[in-house]
Amino acid sequence: MTLSFPIIIGMVFAIxxxxxxxTGRAVENTKNQKFSIEVTDESGLLNxxxxxxxxxxxxxxxxxxxxKVKNGGLDAYFYYPKDLGKKNIEVYxxxxxxxxxxxxxxxAKVLLQQSVTQTVDAQVTAILQDKVQFSSTTYKDGKxxxxxxxxxxxxxxLVLFYILILVFGNQMLTSTTEEKENxxxxxxxxxxxxRTLIIxxxxxLIALAFVQIIAIIVPVIIAYVxxxxxxxxxxxDLSNIPLDPLRIAIGAxxxxxxxxxxxGLLVAIGAIAPTAKxxxxxxxxxxxxxxxxLWAVTLFVSMPDSVLVRFLSFFPLTAPIPLMLRNAVGNxxxxxxxxxxxxxxxxxxxxxxxxVRLFRYGILxxxxxxxxxxIFNKKSKNINFSKQKxx
Length: 391
Prior knowledge:
16 helices, 6 strands, single chain, 4-stranded mixed beta sheet, D-Maltodextrin-Binding Protein, domain 2
């Protein structure tokens, strides 16, 4: 099950790649297909020699050419109006199928572009076709600075956090509830304590998540290193990516404590819910805290000192996204990062402690949610099957 997700993702990308390859070949074949053409050029922009190369003829009048297309005596007729800036180029053609019909407009466009290109300077053509290349250099504090490259290394933790929560969130939520429904927990607790079981479950989920990260990243690296040309992947120079040890350490700390916080929260919800179906209903609430802060993403980048940004950065359930994003773009101060990490550390400990406590009182509850008055009642006794004497 751990390897199924990266395998499915790989299959999807393979299907998309081969589909695009076939589509590209089909488009090229369509462009190379020969068909009868007649052209009326009132703009005066078309090159007459080029029109002959395309095998196009000039009709007596527009309506006659359109009638020939209707009657099947002509495959396509192109009408270029006098003012191309105000009127459309009209294409009349015989139906060749849903996908092959695009070949007519493609030929009409190529005919016009090649005709105009021959009359315009090469530099002007490059500008009009947006083929001019730019080289930009920016500076910060007297040193060369590339904002995009700076955010790659610390931004990896934000991507990993989203992947793990989306892939493993539901599994974390139902891992305890399903075993409780199947009465498996009762048998397991005859040999170990509830605290040992739930802590082991939490850390096994964390280990499983990292195994899946490796299963996703390794094939990507192999594909890029050994099959970059075959897959037409862009050539990225990763050697000059800035590696700021402090920002990477801050991003790693925020990622670890954020993941522990939400892991404990999801396991706690699973422990308190009587059925897996009811537990799944809470996952939508969790996604609000994960995706909700993205509505203020522009504020995280441009106004990091605003009241809303600081609130979202220090409120435990919304803190992971603002803190990791601000750390990636470089506007998270050392003071804010330390405050955020401490808040997430304390919150993760509380979350895991509550998850353990909820599990103790919820292992035998099959029909109703556990009331909070019982959960936080110090006089409530823990159920420990391992210390029960056999009947």
